[in-house]
């Protein structure tokens, strides 16, 4: 505990700190090479040489080449499910996800798609990464299905959470693609955030008739949540 009684985060050991440093070093060199040469034309051996580590060291930290380019995969896959699981009393999954997405737009969060022109172009120019990204969207929808089923006490193979996840995941997929399109069109992150702040609510509004009340948790002391 610190002087205010708050828990003090554990200090990383030297070995763990070195591992994180090495992982970040490899990731940084990989990203630079992918942007300069293209993902599909860059080899693991070239990344290892640039980072001054053995090729096996690279694959120990990043088992697949795609992991080097998309190193926030697990955060991306888990994000929607985590938002739904943590939603407050009186809040529906639609409302929670809407608020979370608009917050990520305001923060220009890279995980939401604000990755910059060079990185976005790297993905768009690589069939491998484009396919991988589609797979991540699919995995995110599957995780969302499980979270919806769990928090509404519904079997995960029931049609309701599966359909709701498809609709909610679909809106996020469209908005992610929109950010990519605007990035590739030369718009800056602040400009894109301004556009999405207008467009995203319209997209979520389309789901309100079907999902506005779905999964709403009972409010505390009878206080109703909003129906957006």
TrEMBL record:
Protein known as: TetR/AcrR family transcriptional regulator
DNA-binding region as annotated in the record: 43-62
Entry-linked Pfam families: TetR_C_14, TetR_N
Top-level taxon of origin: Bacteria
Annotated keywords: DNA-binding, Transcription, Transcription regulation
Residue span(s) of domain HTH tetR-type: 20-80
Coiled-coil regions listed: none
């Amino acid at each position: 505990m610190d002087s205010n009684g708050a828990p003090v985060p554990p200090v990383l050991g030297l070995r763990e700190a070195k591992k994180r440093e090495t992982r970040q070093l490899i990731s940084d060199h990989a990203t630079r090479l992918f942007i300069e040469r293209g993902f599909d034309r860059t080899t693991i051996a070239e990344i290892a040489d640039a980072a001054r580590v053995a090729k096996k060291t690279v694959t120990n930290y990043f088992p697949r080449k795609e992991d080097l380019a998309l190193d926030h995969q697990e955060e991306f896959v888990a994000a929607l499910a985590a938002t739904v699981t943590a939603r407050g009393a009186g809040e529906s999954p639609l409302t929670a996800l809407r608020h979370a997405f608009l917050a990520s737009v305001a923060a220009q969060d890279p995980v939401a798609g604000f990755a910059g022109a060079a990185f976005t172009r790297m993905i768009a120019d690589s069939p491998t990464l484009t396919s991988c990204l589609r797979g991540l969207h699919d995995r995110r929808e599957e995780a969302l299905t499980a979270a919806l089923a769990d928090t509404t006490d519904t079997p995960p193979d029931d049609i309701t959470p599966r359909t709701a996840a498809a609709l909610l995941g679909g809106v996020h997929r469209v908005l992610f693609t929109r950010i990519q399109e605007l990035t590739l069109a030369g718009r800056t992150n602040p400009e894109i955030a301004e556009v999405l702040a207008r467009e995203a609510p319209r997209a979520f509004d389309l789901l309100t008739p079907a999902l506005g009340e779905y999964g709403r948790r009972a409010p505390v002391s009878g206080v109703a949540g909003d129906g957006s």
